[in-house]
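Notes from hallway chat w/ T.B., transcribed later so I don't forget. T.B. wanted the structure written out for a chain they're using in a teaching module, and asked if we could keep both sequence and structure tokens in one place. Agreed to drop them here.
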Amino acid sequence: MQSREANSVLFETTIKYRNKLVNYQLIDTDLMPLVKKDWPQFRFNYRTKLEDSFITKLQWYLKRDQPFYVFKSFNDFFGARLVIPDFRSFEQKILDYYVAKSDNMIVRAYIRDDSPRYHGLHLYIGSGNSKFLWEFQIWDKLDEADNLASHAIHERRKEGKG
């Protein structure tokens, strides 16, 4: 199969996968009531990347001069975020736990610290390089406003607006 045809098939398959994620409802029915009932001080949300946002992200990566890992642009079709009061006081322990874990479900774990504008624990969930990863971020409540503002700036930059 020629490169253009292969890219077209990959793109179509990727959009089909994203569309299936949009219809994924188990989190709403199983997890959300539990979080609201048992952990009201936590904030949990998730989203499936919009098709336009995915295309913008892919185009942004394709314009870069340096080579990039293709799945990096697909790392967050599904993303979830948990905001916890006082999370920074124990985030290193959580990171150490996932780094030491040997079940290979967390394929990448790190603390992203772009102080003073962004701080959070990032976990990428998947099973190797042949599957799309899911991104899970855990933030401290005190970082939430700055993190959201930083994310908005990053998105505008990808769209060529900043």
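Follow-up for T.B.: The longest strand covers residues 106-114. Might be a good example for the class.
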